[in-house]
Amino acid sequence: MNYRRMFMIGLSIMALLSINWTVAEAQDGKGIFKSKGCGDCHAVEGPSKLKNIEDRVKQKGPDLWFAGSKFKPRYLKTWLEKPSDLTGVKYSELLPVKGKNSHPALSGKEASDVSNYLMTLKDKDMATGIIDDKKKMKRSALFKAGTLFQKTQVCFGCHLFKPKKRAKRAIGGFSGPSLVGAKKRLTGDWVYSYLKDQKRYVPLGRMPIYQGPTFQAYPDKDLKALAQYIVNLY
Ligand code: HEC
Ligand code: HEC
Fold first, then answer.
1. Helical residues (DSSP H) of the chain, grouped into ranges
2. Which residues line ligand 2 (CB under 6 A)?
3. Domains along the chain with CATH numbers
4. Whose CA is nearest to atom 14 of ligand 1?
């Protein structure tokens, strides 16, 4: 056997080991998720079974059954280690959050295992390959999408965002999740899928509906532009 062959075999063994490693970590992550009581506040099986507003008020945290489709792989580990407030209100209420960062935090290894587990939770029916997260928007497209976000509808009335990369401060409201750093947090395909059919992910949510038969509906191309805009936000 020549060296080249041995080297290739060695490489394949290493690749297989690293896949097994991630799978094992995801299994550990599932265990940690259970033992830490994360499931008391987060649903990991979808689609949502919420029926009425009473169910919604009882819900203690956002659904995570589509986490692997929604979040960028590296984001979750960081957030789980150092959770920051996403909104300025209590979940299911409109009262201001008292005491910052009250979300339970995980240690580095736990955060990595749980993140690997959450990334296995995919929305199997979500269309992918529609929004290219890495695409830099041209100036004119950015301006148009910015208008859709800031003027056509006042999205930032409920969402913090940075209008420019180097803006010193974020501006906007606090009742919806912050979109500061959405570039690192969300996938474009999920944002598009969410904007197309919010109820699938957040039934009885507080965000106005921007699709279907309503006065504020955006055509499909605008929803795509908005998704592209959001995943370009710093
Ligand atoms: C008492 C309820 C509660 C428990 C227990 C809880 N969470 Fe949460 N979680 C929340 C709420 C509420 C939010 C939304 C935070 C916000 O809007 O600021 C959230 C948000 C999240 C997010 C979304 C982060 C994002 O950027 O969107 C993840 C992931 C998450 N939790 C994972 C976990 C894990 C893992 C555990 C267990 C270690 C856990 N949670 C335990 C209530 C809870
Ligand atoms: C009245 C307040 C309000 C307005 C206006 C609003 N949103 Fe939201 N948005 C929310 C809330 C609240 C959520 C969390 C889900 C829910 O409860 O409906 C949300 C969730 C989202 C999310 C998912 C974020 C996440 O982390 O889960 C995106 C993306 C989003 N909104 C984009 C938009 C865009 C684009 C517009 C304008 C066309 C808009 N929002 C206008 C309140 C609002």
1. 3-35, 53-58, 67-70, 73-81, 108-119, 139-147, 182-185, 188-196, 198-201, 220-230
2. 149, 153, 155, 157-159, 175-177, 191, 194, 202, 205-208, 210, 226, 230
3. 3-119 (1.10.760), 139-230 (1.10.760.10)
4. 61
